[in-house]
Amino acid sequence: MEHFTKRAHQAIVLACVEAERMGNAYLGTEHVLLALSSLRCTASNILVDRGVDLAALQKKTVELVGDRTRPLENQDPVDMGSVSAALERATPRLNKAFTRARVEAARLHRDQIGTEHLLLGMLDDSTSVATEALRSLGVNLDAVREGMSKGF
Length: 152
Prior knowledge:
152 residues, mainly alpha
């Protein structure tokens, strides 16, 4: 079991809600990005500080996923209190982002994975829906990454 901060835990649970709301049987970077942009957290503050309009980001993310959705098929609803249940639905791409988040947290001498680490973990995959949504809004991912790496 990962060691997430309370806010990162909330983001993952909210990502599950987003996935179910969108009719997705999987949990992907797009759902985590939607969750991060919906919460008041370090990750959303970082994005806002770099000029990201969170409402536009949410809209663009949903637009990008539109053609990629598939209906839930006999799936049990996610246990809203269980991160481990959520992680079972994570795509391989999101699992890699979680691994990178863990590495980033350790590199920054943090005992827990925070929302900022989740965002950093997703930024490393240039082909994910999350990075595609950010880039489509003109966000310089390298600048975000560099700013975050210097401390938050």
